[in-house]
Amino acid sequence: MIDQLRMRLAIAEAKKAEANGWVPLGVIIVKDNEVIASGTSHVSELLDSTAHGESWCMKKACQKLQSIDLSGCTLYSTLESCSMCLGCAGWTSLSRVVFGAYKEDIPECPYEIPDYHAEEHAKRFPHLTVQGGILREECKALMKNIKNWTLHQ
């Protein structure tokens, strides 16, 4: 139940992003029951291919905590984390990644290396637990107008 409540906060971030004309992706990071960072993708806005929502949010969380150690933190994302962001989660020692929609839920959009799934890839990081599909249909609906990572409305 708590994961669903927190995913709703990530969904709210995604809706803010969409209102700004950005990809409707939302991310929050929680530590000790407090949201310590929130954000969205800034790839198109900044012309920075590394400014994914998850990496952006991890950066903000590290700055807030004045540490690169995010152990004890949980990241909630409306979309399955890519391999780059999952690698960042491993490097920062995040404890959990929880996401809503799977990469297959993005219509007509190439995404990630073949056969990649965050839940499987996370097994490379013994301290990291990944769980997908939380409020999947709601998160999937956010991405219905995304094609080739641009917003079509």
Short recap of the structure:
The chain is built from six helices and seven strands. It is of the alpha/beta class and 153 residues long.
Topology, element by element:
Layout: H1 2-19, E1 27-31, E2 34-39, H2 43-46, H3 53-65, E3 73-79, H4 83-91, E4 96-101, H5 118-121, E5 129-131, H6 136-142, E6 146-147, E7 150-151
Parallel strand pairs: 3-4, 4-5
Antiparallel strand pairs: 1-2, 1-3, 6-7
Descriptive report:
It contains six helices and seven strands, in the order αββααβαβαβαββ. With 153 residues, it is α/β, with parallel strands linked by helices. Strands 2-1-3-4-5 form a five-stranded mixed beta sheet. The protein is globular and about 35 Å long. The N and C termini lie far apart (33 Å).
How large, in whole angstroms, is the Cα Rg? 14 Å
Structural class: alpha/beta
Oligomer: single chain
* Number of discrete helical segments: 6
Described by strand count, sense and barrel closure, the largest sheet is:
5 strands, mixed
Count of strand segments: 7
The first-to-last residue Cα distance is 33 Å
Average pLDDT rating:
89
Q: Uncertain regions: pLDDT < 50 for 5+ in a row?
A: none
Order of helices and strands: HEEHHEHEHEHEE
- Globular, elongated, flat, extended or rod-shaped: what is the shape? globular
Helicity, in percent?
A: 25-40%
